[in-house]
């Protein structure tokens, strides 16, 4: 890839570089305008958070005051608890402000205009507020001690497989290129780079990109930051204090990668950014493939960008993200069908576990928990796609066999 890592920022410090790869869909000017609009919409969401959550707390207070007085008297701690919740929300807002501070200079090849402190923050949609709340919980999964058990079940199987397929005592890890699409807050990609592999995370959401930039480049001391990730959960709390539990991050110094590590993050839509064929030794996807409108697009992209002999390692469920969104294409395939497509592209399934229980941003104290029964697999793009040093097939095997069938029909 053309991206350099470890660019210097304005302060002369070493920073992981972020690059914005454009999506060209309509006229470039219009595309830029929409891009800027989206960028500011996400910044607004970070700034609107406090107002939004305070409104929710105010609603609880109104409902409480509506109760008969003798019922209110039974709960002397209710209003003081709401005051504590407001305090936690205010703290979260401070962290969110810090996250978006200077974000306009985050991407080295994209300008978003000047930030204006006097610009009135626009109210955000519930949809964007939900995304922001999920992003806050993602800090727990990726960068807190609390998230370690979850990382052990989700990330460790992928890392173990990388270590098995590309053993560091038998190959030069720095020459093994690994891509992590849908990298979230970057911990998996960071861990892979920490082991010495050349690893790039790719992420599309500004919510995630602003936050990963913050943790990777701005958080220097272990557990120096506090968030209240469960503060928005008003149901299923066993104790009132559970809602106000703080989580500290980062559990490890993000700048502690060994010298000469090759780690980068690239912003943009996975299938639009990664078009260069035969580039990667390994693509690692975690809770990612169900973010596609059409999962076959992802399979095709992974097939194309893997070098012959390269591997795709996947862990995740099939909770199709666009399933319930109006006016959005969404093709919901069963794992059986996804696997059939993978095989038809020519991948060889080398490892497959159909039932790997995991959680995703779990609140361990909640009275409601979700368990994902994930699929895990390692699929290889066969090495024999090269013959006499030339690539002979960079397309689906089924295309070829269909062609053969057609030829047979004609004879
Ligand atoms: C369910 S999250 C998983 C994040 C991370 N892999 C983890 O396991 O914690 C899916 C991630 O994929 C990102 N994503 C969705 N569509 C994408 C696309 N087309 N290109 C790149 N990233 C995408 C989302 O923004 C989100 O961060």
From TrEMBL:
Question: What Pfam families does the record point to?
Answer: CARME (PF07942)
Question: What is the purpose of this protein?
Answer: N-methyltransferase that catalyzes the formation of anserine (beta-alanyl-N(Pi)-methyl-L-histidine) from carnosine. Anserine, a methylated derivative of carnosine (beta-alanyl-L-histidine), is an abundant constituent of vertebrate skeletal muscles. Also methylates other L-histidine-containing di- and tripeptides such as Gly-Gly-His, Gly-His and homocarnosine (GABA-His).
- Which GO molecular function annotation, any one, does this entry have? carnosine N-methyltransferase activity
Q: Which PANTHER family match?
A: CARNOSINE N-METHYLTRANSFERASE (PTHR12303:SF6)
Query: What subcellular locations does the record give?
Result: Cytoplasm, Cytosol; Nucleus
Q: Which family does it belong to?
A: Belongs to the carnosine N-methyltransferase family.
Which Enzyme Commission numbers does its entry carry?
2.1.1.22
Coiled-coil region: none
Show the GO cellular component annotation of the record: cytosol; nucleus
Q: Which domain of life is it from?
A: Eukaryota
- GO biological process annotations for this chain's record? carnosine metabolic process; methylation
Q: What keywords are assigned to this protein? A: Cytoplasm, Methyltransferase, Nucleus, S-adenosyl-L-methionine, Transferase
Matches recorded under InterPro entries: CARME (IPR012901), SAM-dependent_MTases_sf (IPR029063)
- Protein name (Swiss-Prot/TrEMBL): Carnosine N-methyltransferase
Q: What is the source species?
A: Aldrovandia affinis
């Amino acid at each position: 890839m053309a991206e350099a890592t470890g660019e210097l920022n304005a302060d002369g410090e070493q920073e992981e570089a972020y690059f914005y790869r454009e999506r060209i869909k309509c006229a470039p000017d219009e595309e830029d305008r929409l891009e800027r609009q989206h960028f500011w919409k996400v910044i607004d969401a970070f700034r609107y958070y406090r107002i939004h959550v305070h409104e929710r707390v105010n609603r609880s207070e109104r409902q409480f005051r509506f109760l008969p007085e003798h019922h209110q008297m039974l709960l002397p701690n209710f209003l003081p608890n709401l005051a504590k919740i407001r305090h936690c929300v205010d703290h979260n807002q401070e962290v969110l402000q810090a996250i978006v501070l200077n974000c306009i200079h985050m991407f080295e090849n994209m300008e978003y205009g000047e930030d204006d402190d006097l610009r009135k923050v626009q109210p955000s949609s519930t949809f964007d507020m939900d995304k922001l709340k999920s992003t806050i919980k993602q800090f727990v999964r990726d960068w807190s001690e609390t998230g370690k058990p979850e990382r052990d079940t989700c990330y460790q199987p992928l890392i173990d497989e990388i270590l098995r397929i590309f053993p560091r005592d038998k190959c030069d890890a720095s020459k093994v290129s690994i891509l992590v699409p849908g990298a979230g807050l970057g911990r998996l990609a960071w861990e892979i780079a920490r082991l010495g592999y050349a690893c790039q995370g790719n992420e599309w959401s500004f919510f995630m990109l602003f936050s990963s930039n913050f943790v990777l480049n701005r958080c220097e001391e272990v557990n120096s930051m506090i968030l209240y990730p469960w503060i928005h959960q008003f149901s299923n709390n066993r104790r009132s204090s559970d809602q106000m539990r703080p989580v500290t991050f980062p559990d490890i110094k993000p700048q502690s990668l060994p010298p000469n590590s090759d780690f980068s993050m690239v912003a943009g839509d996975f299938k639009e950014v990664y078009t260069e064929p035969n580039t990667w030794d390994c693509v690692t996807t975690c809770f990612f493939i169900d973010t596609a409108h059409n999962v076959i697009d992802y399979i095709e992209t992974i097939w194309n960008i893997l070098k012959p002999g390269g591997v795709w390692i996947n862990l995740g469920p099939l909770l199709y993200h666009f399933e319930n969104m109006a006016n959005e294409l969404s093709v919901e395939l069963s794992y059986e069908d996804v696997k059939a497509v993978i095989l038809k592209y020519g991948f060889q399934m080398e490892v497959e576990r159909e039932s790997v229980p995991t959680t995703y941003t779990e609140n361990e104290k909640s009275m409601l928990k979700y368990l994902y029964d994930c699929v895990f697999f390692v699929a290889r793009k066969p090495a024999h796609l090269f013959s006499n040093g030339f690539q002979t097939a960079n397309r689906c095997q089924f295309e070829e066999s269909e062609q053969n069938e057609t030829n047979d029909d004609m004879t």
